[in-house]
Amino acid sequence: MTAEWSLREADVPVLARPAPLPAVLPGATFVDPDSEEAVRTHLDNVLPALDSLRSQSGRLAAWGVELAQRLLRGQRLLAAGNGGSAAEAQHLTAELVGRFDGERVPFSAISLHAESSAVTAIANDYGYDDVFARQVRAHGRSGDVLMLLSTSGKSPNLLRAAGAASRLNITTWALTGTGPNPLADACDEAVMIEALNANAQEGHLIALHAVCRAFDLEVGRRGAAEAPALTNLGGQNPGLQKRGGVA
Question: Could you give all domains of the chain from N- to C-terminal order, each with its CATH number?
Fold first, then answer.
């Protein structure tokens, strides 16, 4: 290397060092008071969501029982949402295709937003408002259940999906934030969580697990009696067999 290309220490710019964090005692954690207050406020705001769910526990239980009875007869669950609601809808279908907290046979459940090629093709050719409605027409059959999740209850693509489902005799359930809202009105039944949007979305996951709890209980009750009619279950007893784990 020639002298012209040699890198001298004096040529290297000195980067500004970050300011040191405040000293803390060994084993202690530094907490910014404003951040701690924001977290406490957020956690306090979860309580109204839980209270709202408790007041609608009967409907959540009824959904779990009805869903179990239909899927045991060979029907299917379709689910959809946008953003965080999409993730929670997919969580629900994973619990049914996989398991909740007991060993049992898988059940048919499809997250309409999870098929990226179909979603992007439909959005490109027909517009994003039709990404779920067209899939409902493709996958849905009379007697199926469509679960739609939205904290606002105003998403146009979910409203169109609800309309498509109603024309096919598919039962529609909405899980939303504060009501009334258009999606709750468009669906056959709705659970509306009276809370801030972020906390309502957290409440949605609790609601879905509550539905799964009732679902598994009903599967255990009815599985043995209805298993002979379930050719799609390969003759397996769909009832719960042992405890597993919740992801």
Answer: 47-223 (3.40.50.10490)
